[in-house]
Amino acid sequence: MYDWLIVGAGFAGSVLAERIASQLNERVLVVDRRDHIGGNAYDMHDQAGVLMHRYGPHIFHTNSQQIFDYLSRFTEWRPYEHRVLAEVDGLRVPIPINLDTVNRLYGLDLTSEQLEGWFAERAEAVDEVKTSEDVVVSKVGRELYEKFFRGYTRKQWGMDPSELDRSVTARVPTRTNRDDRYFTDEFQFMPKGGYTKLFEKMLDHPNIEVMLQTDYQDVRTKIPHRRLIYTGQIDEYFNFRFGRLPYRSLKFEHVTLNTRRFQEVGTVNFPMTQDYTRISEYKHMTGQDHPQTTVTYEYPSAEGDPYYPIPKAENEQLYKQYERLAGETPDVWFVGRLATYRYYNMDQVVGQALATFRRMAAARESRPEDAGAPA
């Protein structure tokens, strides 16, 4: 009999497994369909010996001291500030759009103050910002929207930005200074030994067992457990009772090249050309010294593993039906991206898992018999 069965060995499941095992001294079994731990953050050395990310680049960044300190128990860090270029009009310019982006693209010599006015002159009045298109054209106008956002978004999501919730493009800021970092968080690092090593240390506890290549449906009635933490797709847990929640997927093409460096920065976006959305080169991120380099081409897809919940109002309404059902399901906690139908950064998933554990521990302390009540 296990105290907890945890479905999924990504950040949500692994953090909760570690907390329950080390802080509550309870037995945990973690199961995962894949042949490895770490979820989408899994990294590995390929045949050439280059450390790469099987599911595309994962860049750690956070403003939370608490989350950074927690993860620091399981890894040392390598400072890394991610930079991205977008190939537009035959040039490679910084994205998010900043002062250098505009000056290089248009052959100008604007100051930050002048750029504010330049944006204002081109911005379109929008009565209410509802869609991803509204977000961009109301800030920088239609021409930059067409160059940087529309094509990329249509490839990434398979639909026009005018059909998507504003949250999609709101994630990418517009700057009037020369800051070319993709993120501005206080803590920007990569795990020194890689993400997989971090997960190995996190799950290395005598109260934790891990079973890989194991489907929850195959073991749910065979392995005795008191409580369940589910980090998979919430609609799948309920046998798609109300229909399937739609996701966007990705296809990855990993290529090893006989050169030390392939591109100027970690990631180059292609909003106007190519079938792929971006190329990422891992040695920028890992700092690895190797005579070869490995890059990944990303092709968005309607089929495949669920990566991105599609942010539309009707999808949120469908999720709410499953959320209500989850609230009525005793002794099951739904945690993580797929279980809550949200796009989270890695640090946000860790934060959600830590907050969930605090609620679990508080419930156990106050009413041990109710410790497994859903969040």
Total count of strands:
17
What are the segments in which pLDDT stays under 50 over at least 5 consecutive residues? 370-375
The pLDDT mean sits at 95
What does the largest sheet look like?
7 strands, mixed
CATH superfamily of the domain at 2-37 and 203-245 and 310-370: NAD(P)-binding Rossmann-like Domain
**Helix run count:** 14
InterPro entries: UDP-GALP_mutase, UDP-GalPyranose_mutase_C
Cofactor: FAD
Domain UDP-galactopyranose mutase C-terminal: 147-343
Keywords: FAD, Flavoprotein, Isomerase
Describe what you observe in this structure:
This protein has 375 residues and is α/β, with parallel strands linked by helices. Among the domains are: 2-37 and 203-245 and 310-370, Rossmann fold (3-Layer(aba) Sandwich); 95-170, no CATH class. It has 14 helices and 17 strands. It starts with a strand and ends in a 9-residue tail after the last helix. 34% of the residues lie in helices and 21% in strands. A seven-stranded mixed β-sheet has the order 8-7-13-14-15-12-16. Residues 147-343 form the UDP-galactopyranose mutase C-terminal domain. It holds the Pfam family GLF.
Give a summary of the structure in a few sentences.
Residues 147-343 form the UDP-galactopyranose mutase C-terminal domain. With 375 residues, this protein is of the alpha/beta class.
